[in-house]
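Reopening this ticket.

The earlier resolution said the output was attached, but the attachment link was broken on my side. Pasting everything inline this time so it's all in one place.
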Amino acid sequence: MNQYLIISFQAVVLFPIVVAVFTLPYIAYNYHKYGSILSLKVVIVYSFIFYLLCMYCLVVLPLPTPEEAAALHGRRMQLEPFLFVKDIIKKSDVIPGEPKTWLTVVLNKAFLVNILNLFLAVPFGMYLRYYFKRSFSQTLILSFLLSLFFEITQLTGLYFIYSGSYRLFDVDDLIVNTIGGIFGYILVRPLMIILPSRDELDEVSYKRGREISLFRRVISLFFDIASVSIITMLNRPLLQHYPIFRAFEINLLLYFSILPIFTKGFTLGSFITSTAVVSTDGGHPRFFAYFIRYGLFFGVYFYIPLYIRRILDNFILINTDASKDMGVITIEILLYLLYFLFLLVAVIKAALHRSLFYERWSKTRIESTVKVK
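Inline output:
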């Protein structure tokens, strides 16, 4: 039992790494399909990932020591079905006339190991039926395939990293895990009466997807800035005469002001988050509206603070008087406070779904393109 606790703790340690790898694609998928991310869905999906990670760690860990690994040769297999029944009977000391001895059936190691394998797969069947809406036959097949994946992992010595298998490939594990998945499919039925159905969760997600949340805007901008950065690296040879920051600015201008003209308001970020820039009257904006919109956005929110800082730095370099330096620093702090308040107001307005100044001046707005089902 102590070994299982240690392995479970290792799964907890690995979980943040797996989440970091999985989160961005998961966010992109949800925003593209639903236009929103529902907190209950996040809990269900990430608990499913954590469950699979624990299951994988229990199968793979602990790894053999270098001495044990050096002694591994060949692939060990147990191919006799239901051998575990014989093992349970053999390790039990049942005397028909003495009920106390019947407990030896459920307390011997062979029984406990197989019960663990059974219950290990029960959550898998529950997730498949409740959240992934799989049928009985699909749950049966997927439970078998999951168990087969783990058994092959053991048989191949962690995908041929080791010269032999450090765990036994056991056909009984395939049988017991598959039965566990089916039990999970059956046991989750009463819970489905209490919990909201997957269709109800999707309905709420689609309804929220009609609105443009602040987080949705941020995610869209993140993917767009990442795209511009990649484009800058790819076409760097063409813009080698410009400093890297200047090359980035050129690509930024082309990406946000030229690309949407041909894609009817879409960028990669808006495509992923299922949004598009439209005119305030609902049609496609004029071509110059994109220049106004994104010119004001980046100019006011990013470039003006940078240029103010440069002007103040140049002033400090020219004037070496310490008192003047203190005055400039005071002005700089005040300007940054004003800038912070300006950003805070913008964030609050975006969170409340109010139009921002660059949207009003360019006569554009962001619209959700999610098809509500």
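Reporter confirms the inline version is readable. The beta strands are 77-78, 169-170, 275-279, 364-368. The first strand starts at residue 77 and ends at 78.
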